[in-house]
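Limitations

Structures in this collection are predictions, not experimental determinations, and the ligand pose is part of the prediction. Treat each record accordingly. The example that follows, with adenosine-5'-diphosphate as the small molecule, is included so readers can see exactly what is and is not provided: the inputs are given verbatim, and the output is the predicted complex.
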Amino acid sequence: MKHNPFLITGYKSPDYFCNRILEAERLENAIENQRNMTLISSRRMGKTGLIMHVFGQFSKHSDYIPVYFDIMGTTGFDEFAEVFCNAVLQTVPKTESAWKGFLKKLAAIRASLGFDPLTGEPRISLDIRNEKEVELSLDLLFNFIAKKKKFFVVAIDEFQQIATYKQKNVEAILRSYVQKVRNISFIFSGSKKHMLSEMFSQPSRPFFNSTEMMFLDVINQNDYFEFIQSHFSKSGKHIDDEALASIADYTSLHTFYVQFLCNRLFSAFKKVTDKEVKETIRTILNENQPIYASYLNLLTTNQYKTLRAIALERIVENPTSGKFLSMHHLGAASSVSQAVSSLIGKEFIHDDSGLLSVQDKFFAQWIRSK
Ligand SMILES: Nc1ncnc2c1ncn2[C@@H]1O[C@H](COP(=O)(O)OP(=O)(O)O)[C@@H](O)[C@H]1O
Ligand SMILES: [Mg+2]
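Predicted complex:
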């Protein structure tokens, strides 16, 4: 079966990855020169994809060992240590003796090997009983890395999650290893811009000035159009210019939404014009209708009115300007600015250096069409 070239999860190979040439070069350069990097963008813009893309290059490079883990679902430093441990396990040769050796190193924290019920992949569970043991587990892991001859590149995705941990010294502890272990560099990646920027740019914070920052923006429009067109034509399909413009309009070129829409168009049509794009958008909005309706339950009237006004304008620079308030019948500036803060907090709205837009591009279209 021929697969769809527009991926909506994960990373496959450079063939299905559009552009990001400069970003990949910057990341590679940082890795090769032992600079830590902080990678920030709104959700679903392509941070994880970029890391995987660059790691794909580095895994061919015998001097480097890429380690990736996502801490999104973790609730504390003990779970962080366990996820980290499992990511390091991936780098251990898949032989019984190598694994036994690794487990033996972690014996002090009662590591046990089991299997993931979903994937069948081996998984290590740690029985960490207190904060001291958390530090012990990190000690063991970083020592394991420090003893290796190769260079480790450790990507910690959704890094903003550590701000939700009960333990407040996570940053300081991690920072001490970042400084101590020589053969390791880090990529910290995440989506809550404000939170991450503060972590790395406030003098009082342990990671102050210690990493190079990279903000990931939308992919260049011409490059994206070319990418889409070439994948259609490679499969004997056609998409016209008007359809591409329409895709850009509905998605604001936000990577995930472009991919999702193209995936659907590719699977349903041989020839795509503006008509097919509109039809597909209608289908997607209909499918998501129950979800969007439940989103609305999370909002106060004031928040909804503000969200709607931003969806209609698409990008808003000054939500408390008299013009914006009166055009959308929004009432007092103070209540709108409160609504904006809550909407950002609930991740309905993305704040890109003061430019506000609705995070979910299809939801924005649904609001506009109501
Ligand atoms: N450069 C790219 N070209 C094509 N698809 C991409 C690209 N970057 C990301 N994607 C796709 O877009 C979606 C969102 O990307 P992801 O890397 O998960 O975003 P983030 O980590 O910023 O939330 C994924 O389905 C991914 O496959
Ligand atoms: Mg991601």
